[in-house]
Every structure is written in C-alpha cells, then in structure tokens.
Amino acid sequence: MKQQVTPYLIFDRQAKDALSFYKEVFQAEISDLQTYGEADFPTPEEANDLILHAKIKKSELLIMVSDTFPGNPLVFGNNVSLVLECENEAEIQQLYDAMCEKGSSLMELQDTFWGAKYAKVKDQFGVQWDLNFTK
Known about the structure:
Shape: globular
Structural class: alpha+beta
Oligomer: single chain
Largest sheet: 8 strands, mixed
Strand content: 35-45%
Mean pLDDT: 90
Low-confidence stretches: none
Helix content: 10-25%
Strand order of the largest sheet: 2-3-4-1-5-8-7-6
Distance between the termini: 16 Å
Order of helices and strands: EHEEEEHEEE
C-alpha cells in the first residue's frame, strides 16, 4: 500500500491570492484550477469565481488549495485537511470505515463528478482527511 499525504489548504475568498503567492514563493506551477462556477453542481452566484480546487506543484512538492463554500465559515481546524490518495476501492473503503469508527464522516464515501471515489472524514483526534481513489 503506497500512500501519499498531501496538504489541502482552505481559504475564505483568498485562494486566488494564495495561489499567486505560493506560485512565486515556491517557483511552482498551478494546475487543475477549477472555480465553483465551473463545477457540475448548484452553486450560489457569489461563489462562481471562488476556487473549488487547484494544485501547486514543483518536483515532489504538491499543495492543494480551495476556497470554503459559502455558508461554511472558515474556522481554525477546518482550514487544513490531509489528502490521502488510495490505490483501490478496497483500500479507500477500509480507511473510511476505520476513521469513521471513532471519528465522523463529513462527506459520505461516494462516486464523484471528477471520476473518483471520495470521502471526507474527521478522525477521533479532530484531523480532517480527504480520501480519494481516482478510477
């Protein structure tokens, strides 16, 4: 089981500025940028230009970035989650079940519009995990 943990930074309407800053600081590339308005799900108009997802990458450095969805206030503790890329469906199911046993599911394990099986959980220590298996 090869696992890679990636930090996912959440901002309150500052993701574009953060992307520009990190691009310059790390001399990195921005990729996979998608706004809420480009997503295939209902979004309030005021969120259309906010960042749903983007990546900053240089060599082995990978940071994921997003703006919080309107109505979900940013509070200390939910501004960072750890993304765990899984190798198969059995692995993501096992991790989801184990983390939810004493923790909680923030988003049920499900197939997504981006072609992955995904769940968001909070473990028993309050750490948020994004579990992802790209099919």
